[in-house]
Amino acid sequence: MNEKLKVKSEKFKTNNVSFVFNFSLFTNKMPQTPHIEKHFTSGEVVRDVVIGMADGLTVPFALAAGLSGAVVSTGIIVTAGFAEIVAGSIAMGLGGYLAGKSDIEHYDSEYEREIYEIDKMLQHEKDEVVEILENYGLTEQESLPIVESLAARPKDFADFMMRFELGLEKPDPKRALQSGATIGGAYIFGGLIPLIPYILLAEAHEALFWSVAVTVVALFVFGYVKGTFTGAKPFKSAMQTCLIGSVAAAIAFLVARWIS
User: Fold this and answer.
1) 211-240 pLDDT, tens per residue?
2) What is the CA 147 to chain-centroid distance, rounded?
3) Is 4 helix (H, G, I), strand (E, B) or coil?
4) E runs forming strands in the chain
5) How many other CB atoms are found less than 10 A from the CB of residue 65?
6) Are the C-beta atoms of residues 194 and 61 closer than 8 Å to each other?
7) Of all residues in the chain, what percent are helix, strand and coil, respectively (each to 5)?
């Protein structure tokens, strides 16, 4: 073979740890297809939307349906529904915000503990890194250079332990506020859907029929869209969301009717 090989060294940096790879490239230019990886990276946002929408579709519907058996006019139902949506969205949003703040505080606390252990119990931490790397197929001899390199950089060492020992990712400082706003907004949007028939119609029993229909359709569409974004089978996701949401709404409705 007359083809000459050209060795090229490239350096990559991931999570503050540098790796050097050597690539052998043929001098003759071969056609290459660019590799594009498509990963869905907004799982936390989808989770918040699911939480808000699921509660928003279920709770106001149950309230309106329960009141439909006690009153004839839809005016009272709409007023009560709006009051519930406001209170519910504030409560849900606040819960999401506090949960996000708790994640940040938990991460910071564990990070400080790792820094302390690296400073006071360095050999123990080194042994833990060796065990972690052995789980990925590296021998002790292969792990030692990595361990010593990390030991020379305490902050990178702590980042490594947070990720691979504790399984914790550093939370986005803006995440708490974003989570609260997303959950609260999704709750409002979901809560308005079952109330639309009560806003448009004057008779409560007729509005209840249309509210049930609109809520079921909304659950199906919501599940389909959720499945599309998360990579799950859209139709399966739609059916699951519709079934679970309908059962939850039905139980809430029966409890509300029983109380009223």
Assistant:
1) 888 888 888 888 888 777 766 788 888 888
2) 33
3) coil
4) 5-14, 17-26
5) 26
6) yes
7) 75, 10, 20
